[in-house]
Design a protein that fits this description.
The protein is mainly α. The longest helix has 34 residues. The protein is rod-shaped, with a radius of gyration of 35 Å. The mean pLDDT is 87.
């Protein structure tokens, strides 16, 4: 009597192949270089671009004020505004409300 042994070889092959495929799919979506990570990096990059643009505007404003207060170009209105703000300068004929 010859008993035929069940063929576990193909079952093991397909189990290993499907496990490896599931791992690769998971890594492609959730891994360090996956789709979700890429979306997060793109969102962070957009946020950093907005911050860069905002800082560039602030820098341009500061450069403008610095130029207006320089020795070569003196804006008296800006100088008066800065004296009032920093030093608390008030003229005698003005009324200050707080």
């Amino acid at each position: 009597m010859n008993k035929k042994r069940p063929a576990f070889g193909p079952v093991i092959f397909y189990a290993i192949t499907s496990t490896f495929g599931a791992y690769l799919t998971f890594a492609a979506v959730q891994g360090e270089y996956g789709l979700f990570r890429r979306i997060q990096i793109e969102a962070d990059a957009e946020q950093l671009r907005e911050e860069r643009d905002r800082l560039a505007l602030q820098l341009a404003e500061i450069e403008n004020r610095t130029h207006r207060l320089s020795d070569n170009f003196l804006d008296l209105d800006l100088l008066d505004e800065q004296a009032r703000e920093v030093l608390g300068y008030v003229r005698r004929d003005e009324i200050v409300l707080r």
